[in-house]
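To fix ideas, we reproduce below one chain and its tokenised fold.
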Amino acid sequence: MAYLYSKAKNPFKLRLFASVSLMGVVPLGSLHAQTSVGAAEAATDAQDMQDQDIVVTGSRVIRNGNESPSPVTVVQTQDVLQMRPGTLAEALNILPVFSGSKGTTSNPSTTGATVGGNGNANQLNLRNLGPNRTLILLDGYRVPPTSYNNVVDVDIIPQLLIQRVDTVTGGVSAVYGSDAVAGVVNYVLDKKFEGLRLQGNSGISQRGDNRKLDAGFAVGKSFLNDRGHIELSYQYIDMQGIPARSDRAFINRANMTGAGTTANPYVLGQDLRQSGFPFGGLITTGVLANRVFATDGVLQPFQAGLATGTSGVQIGGDGGYYDSTLAGKLRAHQVFGRFDYELSDNIAAYVQISGNNKLNQNYSDPLRLNGVTLSSSNPFLAAQYRTQLANAGQTTFRLSQLTGNNTRLESRSTSDQWVGWAGLDGKFGDWRWGVNYSHGRSVLDVTLNRNPDYQRLAAALDAVVGPGGQIVCNITVTNPTAPVGQGCSPYNPFGPTAASQASLDYILISSFYKATTDQDHVSGHIAGSPFSTWAGPINVAVSGEWRKLRFFADSSLKPSDLRNCTGLRFNCTSTQAISDFTFANTPRISQTVYEGAVEVELPLVRDVPFIQALNLNGAARYTHYDTSGNYWTWKIGGDWRVADTLRFRGTISRDIRAPTLFELFSPPVSIPGNVIDLLTGQTPSVPIVTAGNPNLTAEVGKTATVGFIWQPTSRLSLTVDAYSIKVSGAITTVSGNAPAQQNACYDSGGSSFFCSLQSRPLGYGRTAANMAAGNAVTEWRGTYLNYSEISTKGIDAEINYSTSLFGRPALARLMAAYQPHIYFVQAGAPTIDQGGAAFGPSGFNPSADTRISGFVRFQPFEGVSVDILERWRSAMKLSGDPSVVITDNHISPFATTSLTLTFDIKVGTGKAQLSFNVENLFDATPPIGGYLTNGTRAGLRDGFVPGDDVVGRAFNAGLRATF
């Protein structure tokens, strides 16, 4: 791809996006309004472009991006952040080619460490094939993973010194190695920045939350007659987020209920509540049964809500509900430094370091009491109720309760991510070479605050009157030396606010998980033209790489840490873990990779009728993984320039994604689950246990792309690219609790492989005995298998047009992605189509089949610009699982509009831009929705389609100055 940033003199250029699509020197993304500039200045711009270094993303041999057979989309950093203030990752997601990316509003997971990393990290996802199939580069070099699931948290990239971002949509593993199945995202540094750049932006939602602050500076300076250059940057980002889903009334605890059968279909409901778990506590046994402590200490009859198809979930009534984080909190410090020096006219050396310290925070599950046993003489219970129990001969009773927001589990994920590079670049004659070494280290510290310690809870619930007349924990009287009783403060569960802070501080502990990921990477390449033919020079590149990835993790609270029940009368089972939220230690594990590659650009025909130029590009790579074997990848591409106005391009490739350390060696990890058992109709609270699989092999992708670029005039161009991607042996988390896997097991009568992913007392066939409540599942299990085939086809299109309006320059750009199907095929299970589906099992992200982004820029006055961004997605299915029955399997389309006003200001010898932005200008409210099995915990997850704007109208003001 040609170097698209030029020293153009036209102050009004559409730099928002550019595709490598024009048959000429000046690409369309830098096309200026000819009504304002004229042909002479266009020629100057073209010369400026030629004077710049050539940087091509997607190839090591192509020197002119207009001859690249792969579609490449270019984002100019400054302008896209102007349209979408915040992190660069969030701004990139306005491109339709990104679908299903994760961020702060993507239902952040408190247990992110159980899936290999920070559950709130910004992860880019091309075509919804998964962020682990999108390779992240910095200036063409692989960015080390920031977690051992091989995903990169792109907040590590130095945003202030990124000149542009190139996105290659298509498999390029033969050029860059494993993981480039869906494509690559290459962040291109401004390595010759001179001067001082200051930046600040602040924003807030119309509702007074989701406050944002972004401030930073960059400085660059050349010295020693321009042989040396140094640049530094620092950026601070503070995004306060939205701490609770209840802060957006439209969600109203929306989720799915039912069992997915004809008799009990899935139904999307609102105002869902946990019928058996009110905030004040519900007595479930004996003479006081079905009464609730609606106020502290006072019982009244429990008011049931409207029944749903899910046991224990009702609409309305006195039941409680979860209220987890809607938008996670982010606070980050990003630093970057680079030094380069020309050792000679032909050799340059450089060192650079990039670091990011960030905090992600969110809240989820509150403390829940599930049928705990209490003494009838509990002194917190009013005397009249103790008397009633005594008269009925009851020595104990049971109580269930969902406590309030002050007991929500808090996840604080602190990431220290550092990457250092050092290398040499050189040339001799027409040959270019380079060697590079990088070392990356990412340390993830997860602190879970308010994590329930169930042995302490058992002690605190057993309250008695002590020797001095004070209410104390029984264990401090009967067994005062027992470790679990030390510091025990009795817990009062009889009312929404009855519990003391001291008792909560005793029960809710902090646990810690620390994971360290290291990668060393050495690479080298040489590229040049050994000879020429009549059609032009043949370009060849040879490259080699070695890298080693290491991981280890320690946890303060492991699944093997069992409860100490010594001296406890009730609510303690010594074979159970201390808490629901535990992490296993991972011993040091590693993976070593050797790779060698060759790439050739071969000009075939030039300047004959109907063929202005015809070029062939090919690449092949051999890869050896010490953990998963040897693989060949390859790519063949062609570029046919018919004339200056019309060009065709196409590629076919074989790509791989090797299994990650997490997928291979993850120890068994258990998290609590409240999933509907579709065989019995029950919703038991049982563990979901997932473990790695050391027998995994690499998944293989085959990709084909074909497209054309048509530019009938200098004002108008159309780009269309079609693609087909098929991934065989796709590594998939296969979990027994997913509806498709459950139904496949029960329909087989117990013979299906999926039956091994669950445990229950009796059988698995749909018999009356097996469907009884006594046969409810006791454990769900999951693992990783080369079990799936993923296939998708689609079309990407762009239209660009420049004109004048009222004698002033105006430009418009329309980008669209059409991806009607993403098939996930698993043997023995129904094929799931995630294309046009909003929700799916683990790893299945939302993907509207049509995604459109439109951009309009108008300059009504000199130095004043108006930018309008319109984003639209098509209607979606709630689920693409054909094995279930859903009432109204539909979510409406959704669109938002953003408006930006920018004012150019002259500041001494420098220049500045003052901008005012309104996101979601018309305060559009997204439609509600939910995943099929998440309705068992009302308000905890979902309620909207991740990717839709749940913040609402928001205001931003920014200032950017360069001196």
